Amino acid sequence: MTQLDVRPQVGDTVSGVAEGDVRGKGLGKGSVGLVGSAVIGISTVAPVYCLTSTLGSTAGEVGMQMPAIFLAGFLPMLLVAFAYRELNKAMPDCGTSFTWTVKAFGPRIGWMCGWGLVIATIIVLSNLAGVATSYFWLLAGEITNNPSIAALDDNKLVHIGTCLTLIALATAISYRGMTATKGVQYALVGLQLAVLAIFVAMAFQKASAGTFDTGLDFSWSWMNPFAVESMAAFTAGLSLSIFMYWGWDACLATNEETTGSAKTPGRASLIAMVVLVGSYLATGIAAQMAVGSGDAGLGLANPETSDNVFAALAGPVMGPMLGILLFVAVLASAAASLQTTFIPVARTVLAMSTYEALPPSYAKVHPKFKTPGRATVMAGVATGVFYTVMTLVSENVLTDTIFALGLMICFYYSLTAFACAWYFRGELRRSARDLFFKGVFPVLGGLLLATVFFKTLIDMWNPSYGSGSTVLGVGSVFVIGVGLLALGLVIMFVTERRSPAFFRGEVLTKATPALVVED
Predict the structure, then answer these.
(1) 160 lies in which domain range?
(2) Which residue, 105, 143, 240, 328, has most beta carbons within 10 Å?
(3) Is residue 400 part of a domain?
(4) How would you class 162 by CB atoms within 10 Å of its CB: exposed for 0-12, middle for 13-18, buried for 19 or more?
(5) pLDDT tens-digit profile of 377-405?
(6) CB contact at 8 A, 123 and 403
(7) What's the pTM?
């Protein structure tokens, strides 16, 4: 296996990149540029899908402070993004969180961090496939003006069959490499952002005209997170907001395939974050001004429509013709994210296999497409099996699995943030920039997400959290979330017996940065 070429280029200042045990994977180098990488990050987050599924829920928790909560959720993600950027400069490895936490904390913590990323992604992939399936039949019913076609989504066999077909298509596109991925993503991301801009403009127009009785006048108080009525409401809203930003780190998973792998992915992730927070704030403010955040009429918190806000607002805000575009945008958003979300999970599995933390068969890269072919197919199969089993067993179990997702997200993001500060601990006194970007900011981001992690654990214990189902008196969301982490521990111990070299630290070793190298 050839080693990754991490030599500094002319004009670069690189710290500690010459790690002898960091390996190349055979991926297609130079396949993605800055714009393509940013598009992949935006697409994985699926902003239109996130907005339609969480605008109402967030308004229901925090009322008119929804824009403030969007900003509050952006803060820890931005701080963690700095950690990703600095670690990527030192080690542009497609294993990202897995590789970096191994280098900082050792093989076992690193393995569990990788597991958290993989299992979170599988859950998200199954959810995205389900949403894309539902919107496919909903859109078909709208176009044909035939409710019976839209009702096909209620047929479990039809729903599962359509879902598996979409998963297979997304897997096939990801299998064919980053060039195919980019072409699809430019179109889908461009479509959803354009339609979102039209919705925002028309919502502002309806608000200024006072079209809806529940509309509100803009107030700067909406931007004050301290105005939320209770800590419980703030935490619930923050959890939803954090979920809305999850996925931007897909930019980093393509670092070995990106032009300027040490710097471009970090810049792309920050661009993606700015686009996302701008989109969320504009849409949230426009929708709140147009229809209000209450639970009456078209209000965002109306329990009858809060799970799918755009389905309720498409016609009233955009009209019957343009309203269909909003349905198309949600479908495009879910489909685009379904396809790009394969990127981080497949490359994390590839890296774990390359470093002997998983069976060696997953370390194979397709000779033509330069993609982790077997790992991508594995992710697709796992997603299809997971969604099918969960759907057939119980809709409540599937819902609770999605609620447990936030636990996984906070788990591996916070570990990565702490890994940054610990890995660069010897450099923190070198300059103010190093102190803040490698130490203070990552630690603050990690602490914020760790706080949400433990608060969510406490809340999950209550059976009322999620679908309301219980296991021996304990909330099923808690059982699922903790159970998935415990399953990771079991798999890790089994893997350790079969591949002891990695867990002895002989393959990917703990390290601290070398001295600064300047050319």
Answers:
(1) 13-442+449-518
(2) 240
(3) yes
(4) buried
(5) 999 999 999 889 888 877 667 667 777 78
(6) no
(7) 0.86
